[in-house]
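Lab meeting, item 3. Inverse folding demo.
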């Protein structure tokens, strides 16, 4: 440890979701959904192509929710939540995490308690319009494409986030460090299709598909993951 990802690419769409529905979905973790405005939380759908890393090459799809740091409980305000988002004090709960590699599935579940399951991917991270779909047992989970965004300053700047996971009745937190280059982002720009898989039905219950708040592509992403610690 830490586990290093030397080269990956990613794209994501961030959505506004009802706080009550999202909280009901993640109550099993003991964590609290962060609110960026009253009654609304943030859910991100993320596709990652891991090219060179300690866990080998593989594809991944994540359903994540922005959550309050586990040390901040009871009565946190929207103002405090926005401050946490701006200063890196918020966390990301990895709620669903299909992958297409057996080794990374076993390592992710065993080391960090990430809820990795095997699935099938069809992804294009290289074209101007990024797109990917993920299915399991012949059932489509999601198909997502995002249009090109505007280049953002600060390329290559390190950032850190607390990643939360829950498996076998235990909620854990892991230090997640990132170094993204070539980041592009825009308001909206996503085309999301939901399939018939149970994960797709969870997203429907959150009001998706709807217009994305923001979409982002990262053609060059380096990451490290530290040890997982139980809450």
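The presenter then showed the designed sequence:
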């Amino acid at each position: 440890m830490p586990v290093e990802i030397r080269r990956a690419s990613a794209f994501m769409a961030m959505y506004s979701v009802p706080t009550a529905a999202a909280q009901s979905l993640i109550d099993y973790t003991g964590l609290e959904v962060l609110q960026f405005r009253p009654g609304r939380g943030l859910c991100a759908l993320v596709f990652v192509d891991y090219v060179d890393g300690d866990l080998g090459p593989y594809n991944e799809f994540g359903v994540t929710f922005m959550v309050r740091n586990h040390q901040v409980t009871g009565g946190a305000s929207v103002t405090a939540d926005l401050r946490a988002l701006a200063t890196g004090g918020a966390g990301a709960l990895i709620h669903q995490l299909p992958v297409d590699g057996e080794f990374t599935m076993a390592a992710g579940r065993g080391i960090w308690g990430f809820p990795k399951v095997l699935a099938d991917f069809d992804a294009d991270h290289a074209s101007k319009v990024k797109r990917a779909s993920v299915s399991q047992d012949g059932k489509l989970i999601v198909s997502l494409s995002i249009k090109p965004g505007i280049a953002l300053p600060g390329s290559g700047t390190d950032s850190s986030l607390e990643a939360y996971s829950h498996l076998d009745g235990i909620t854990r937190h892991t230090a997640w460090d990132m170094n993204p280059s070539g980041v592009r982002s825009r308001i909206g720009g996503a085309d999301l299709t939901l399939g018939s898989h149970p994960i797709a039905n969870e997203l429907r219950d959150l009001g998706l598909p709807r217009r994305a708040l923001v979409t982002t592509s990262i053609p060059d992403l380096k990451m490290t993951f530290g040890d997982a610690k139980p809450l």
